[in-house]
Amino acid sequence: MHADEDKHELKIINLGCTVFHRNMSKKSSNMECIYRVSQDGLRFLMPWLKRRIVYTKDLDSFKRCIMYRYHALGVEDDTCQIPDETFCQEMKDFTPGCFIVIF
Q1: Is 15 part of a structural domain of the chain?
Q2: How far apart are the C-alpha atoms of 77 and 29, rounded to whole Å?
Q3: In this structure, are residues 53 and 76 in contact, taking their beta carbons and an 8 Å threshold?
Q4: Which residues are registered as beta bridge partners of 54?
Q5: Helix (H, G, I), strand (E, B), or coil: what is residue 101?
Q6: 71-80, 84-93, 94-103: lowest mean pLDDT where?
Q7: 13 in any annotated domain
Q8: Is residue 4 part of a domain?
Q9: In a domain, 62, yes or no
Q10: Which of 33, 16, 20, 37 minimizes the C-alpha distance to 94?
């Protein structure tokens, strides 16, 4: 940007980092959260999303969470397919929407 200081030919169209993506899922029409957090903008939002973060030390639970959709894991009903019991219980306590999983 400093190189363009004399000519003023540089047009800035987009600048910054994507923080949110619009949730375009078929199941998102009746959800309270129409946007989801982008992984690029996660570090900027972490201080404000303390209640929407779940931690796990179990690698298998983390893998299952990122490989399968939330509804396929059976978290909503009593057939939770995640080995870590506390992790599964914390996910059950969330309201529908975006949350962050940290290994």
Answers
A1: no
A2: 21
A3: no
A4: 101
A5: strand
A6: 71-80
A7: no
A8: no
A9: yes
A10: 33
How many Cβ atoms from other residues are within 10 Å of residue 84's Cβ?
Answer: 21
With b meaning 16 or more CB within 10 Å and e meaning fewer, what string describes 51-60? eeebebebee
Distance CA 41, CA 16 (A): 10
Domain around 49: 20-102
Q: What is the pTM of this model?
A: 0.63
The type of residue at 37 is: V
As for how many domains the chain has, the answer is 1
Q: Do residues 23 and 36 make contact, with C-beta atoms less than 8 angstroms apart? A: yes
| 26-to-29, 30, 76 alpha-carbon distances in Å | 7, 9, 18
How much is the pLDDT for 26? 65
Write the pLDDT tens digit of every residue in 33-69: 778 888 898 888 888 888 888 888 889 888 888 787 6
Task: Give the whole-angstrom CA distance, residue 76 versus residue 56.
Answer: 18
Residues 77-98 have a mean pLDDT of 77
How far is it, in rounded angstroms, from Cα 50 to Cα 60? 23
